[in-house]
């Protein structure tokens, strides 16, 4: 898998160490905007803790390339999906019902054009919406 690393020098070094040669790092950038402008061909973008562009209320739709932005709650659900948690575990972690989680998963899948949970996580990582 070809990946881009985004963040401060220290964050990129930490990400590079975590990848440990298991993925091909094809570029490193200080910001996600710089990575997108470079248009380097990659399968995913790994963003350091401080390098992500995220608003507390919403992720900018034009930035993410989505017709409709993900809400901050949808991003939280998506991050927990990426951890492999089931709906009931996500519901317990966020203090919401499992039906609400199902609603969020359906909304996330629709916004990302994903066919299932795994595809939603894959698409989100590729767009730089979440990191693994």
Outline:
Helix content is 51%, strand content 11%. By secondary structure, the protein is mostly helical.
Main attributes of the structure:
single chain; 132 residues; mainly alpha; three-stranded parallel sheet; 7 helices; 3 strands; 51% helix
Can you offer a commentary on this structure?
This protein has 132 residues and is mainly α. Helix content is 51%, strand content 11%. It is built from 7 helices and 3 strands. It has helices at 9-19, 32-38, 61-64, 72-82, 87-94, 98-112, 117-127, and strands at 2-6, 24-29, 44-47. Strands 2-1-3 form a 3-stranded parallel beta sheet. β1 (2-6), α1 (9-19) and β2 (24-29) form a beta-alpha-beta unit.
How many distinct helices? 7
Distance between the termini: 14 Å
Sequence of strands across the biggest β-sheet = 2-1-3
Q: How much is the average pLDDT?
A: 82
Query: What is the radius of gyration computed over CA atoms, rounded to a whole number of angstroms?
Result: 15 Å
Residues in helix, %: 40-55%
Largest sheet, in brief, is:
3 strands, parallel
Poorly predicted runs of 5 or more residues? 52-63
Shape descriptor reads elongated
- Strand tally is 3
Structural class by helix and strand composition:
mainly alpha
Percent of sequence in beta strands: 5-15%
Q: N-to-C SSE series?
A: EHEHEHHHHH
């Amino acid at each position: 898998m070809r990946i881009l690393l985004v963040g401060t020098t220290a964050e990129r070094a930490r990400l590079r160490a975590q990848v440990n040669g298991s993925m091909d790092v094809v570029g490193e950038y200080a910001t996600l905007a710089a990575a997108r402008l470079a248009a380097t061909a990659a399968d995913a973008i790994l963003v350091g803790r401080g390098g992500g562009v995220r608003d507390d209320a919403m992720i900018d739709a034009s930035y993410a390339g989505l017709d409709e932005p993900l809400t901050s709650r949808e991003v939280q659900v998506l991050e927990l999906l990426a951890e492999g948690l089931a709906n009931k575990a996500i519901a317990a972690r966020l203090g919401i019902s499992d039906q609400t989680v199902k609603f969020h998963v359906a909304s996330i899948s629709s916004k990302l054009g994903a066919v299932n949970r795994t595809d939603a996580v894959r698409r989100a990582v590729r767009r730089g919406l979440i990191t693994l």
